[in-house]
Each structure stands twice: as C-alpha cells, then as structure tokens.
Amino acid sequence: MTVVERPEFRGPVHYGSLQLSTRYLLSPLAGFTTLPFRRIVRNIGGVGLATTDLVNCRALLEKNERTMQMIETHSEDQPFAVQIFGSDPQHMVEAAQFLVEHGVATIDINMGCPVNRIAGAGSGAGMMTQTEKTISLVQKIVEAVELPVSVKMRLGWDSENLTAPFFAKEFEQIGVCAIAIHGRTREQGFGGSVSLPGIRKVVEAVEKIPVVGNGDVRNVIDAAHMIRETGCHAVSIGRAALANPWIFRQLDEWERTGQYSPAGTFDERLTLMLLQHQHMEERHTPERAIILFRKMAHWYLKGMRIRKKLRGDFQKISTRDEFIEAIQRIRDEGPVGGNRTGVLTDCHIPVPNGPVDKW
Ligand SMILES: Cc1cc2nc3c(=O)[nH]c(=O)nc-3n(C[C@H](O)[C@H](O)[C@H](O)COP(=O)(O)O)c2cc1C
Questions:
Q1: pLDDT digits over 226-243, tens only?
Q2: Protein residue closest via CA to atom 1 of ligand 1
Q3: Which of 25, 26, 27, 110 most suits a substitution to test ligand 1, by most atoms within 8 Å of the C-beta?
C-alpha cells in the first residue's frame, strides 16, 4: 500500500442530472480508447466516465461503417460519452440528436483537435478562434438535446490567446454541463508542461459546473497535485491509462482511504491482454484484431517489463497462430528482473504522442 496525502475534494461530480461514480475520467485517445479498451479499464474499476474517440458528425449522419463502430458500447461501458466534432451547426445538431436515440449518456464537443484538416476547417481547436460562431454552435446543440453536453478544449490557441476561461464562462451560461481542459495551448502540442494556473483560471471562471483537469497525470501523486493546485472537480487521464489501466481504481481507493494498492502484476496484465484481444476479435476479423491490438500491446508489454526483443517480435505478428505463440513465449519468459505475482519494478514508460504531436 502507498500512502499519499489527500487534498480537499469537491463533492460528487454531476454532468447535468447524471452523477458520476468517481471523479476520475478516461480521456479520449483516438485509436486507443476504443470499446475493447474501455471495457478493460471499466472492469478494473474506478472510472467515472469514458468517452469515445472523436467522431466526425457528418460521417455519423451518413452512418459510415467505421464511425458506427466507434459509437458502439456495451453494458460494461456505462455511462459513456460520445465526442463529436464538426463546424456545420445543422450537422452537429443532427448528429447530437442521432446520439440521443443511441443510448448515449452525455455528448462531448471536441474543441481541441489541432489537425489542420479539422482545425483549419473551423472545428476542433479551430473553434477556439471564433467566438460568436462557436458559442452559437454549442448553444444550438445544448438546446436541441435533453442530454448533458460537455466541451473539451485546450487553454487557447496560443499563449497570446488564452481564451478557455472566457469560453468556459460563456458555455456555463448557455447550459453546458461540464468543461474538460487540457492545460496546454494548441501551439504547445505536447511540449513543455501543463499549466496548472491556467487550469485554475478555468475553474475560477465558472460558478457551478464541474471542470475536469487534464494533462500529464501519470499517477496518484500527479492527480493530488492537479486537484490541489487547480481546485478542479474531476481529473481525466489519457496516456497514463495505457501503461497502467489500474490507475482509476488506485485513484478511487486513494480518495476513499488515503492509500492505494499496486497496479496489476505480470500475470494480471497478461490476463488483461488476452481479454482485450478477445474483445477485439468479437468486433473485427482476426487479422484486423491483431493489427489493432499490436498498438495497445506495445504499452502493455513495456509495463510488464518484457525483454526488448520479445516486444519487438510482438510487433511483427500478423496471424492468430503467431499471436498465440508470442503470448506463450512471453508467459514462459516472464518479466525481466521481477516476478510474476509481485509488484513490478518501476520504470519510466513513455506514452504516445498525438497523431500530429499536438493533441
Ligand atoms: C494518441 C492520442 C489521441 C488523442 N485523441 C483525442 C481525441 O480523439 N479527442 C480529444 O479530445 N483528445 C484527444 N487526445 C488528447 C487527450 O485526450 C488528452 O487531452 C491529452 O493526451 C493530455 O492528457 P494525458 O496527458 O492524460 O494523455 C489525444 C491524445 C493522444 C496522445
């Protein structure tokens, strides 16, 4: 058990009428936080809300096959939010209405995506550069659906334009239920460090709605620091959950008791990998499941302290038989310098950059 001093916590987190079971949320990571992964972290426990990767509202209205797969959920994946992006108010409103019919608990609007194709077209982070149009767009969505609508954004476009507190205040007035804020500007990408004073300004800009602090939280100590320094109501975690899917359970345990249990052992992680692969095979052909799974396995295997060569070999597998063989070798060999059922030795686990280094 590890003891970490607790900050003062706010009351339970509500997204409109929906009360979250914990204040620890899974942040969207396009290509990673898919349903199979969400089921894994949910099963471990401690997740208050999980969100899909960003979904193109137009593709949703066209019922594009891959997009429809992105909004699939499961009884183990509740409550869940779908994150949409777009710049055409009509499409965004219709997409939101479409989601209401699909059993979604809340809708999140992406105001942080930096990819030129998206931000340049006025959606994602591009919304942070257009005040009136953006507020009007968000208002139309809020008015069109009964579900709680949240917004996820960065501190602003660049250090000269830190518009997040302004938008947060305006959004609260028009009925947005929560704001998630990644404490960097669009220009910063993943460089530098997260500005906790910047997040604090967003917390101070709103009166009642919860603000979800986000960025670089890798463990309980980081989360305690985030909550203490910003006063945020909730914390969302993206990349650290890939290396440690136990992080939400640890945070929840710590909030309740002041201490937390170690993350999973080698054997537990292996079981988790197999389960996630099984979830992937339920949705994709065996070949596609392997391709998608390799990307996840990269982070799992680092956390499991697998010999580098075996990690490299895993990235070359392409068939189910090769998968089974590779897992068997990993099982036989076990972790480097540790044991299968004890606490794994700590090591720095780098986490992936965004698609353009600038999420
Ligand atoms: C690979 C990758 C994909 C991402 N995809 C999304 C996305 O679809 N929607 C979104 O709002 N943010 C996305 N983000 C940003 C994360 O949700 C989060 O704000 C950021 O990674 C900082 O949090 P972290 O340090 O806990 O990962 C992505 C980030 C990464 C690294």
A1: 999 999 999 999 999 998
A2: 354
A3: 27
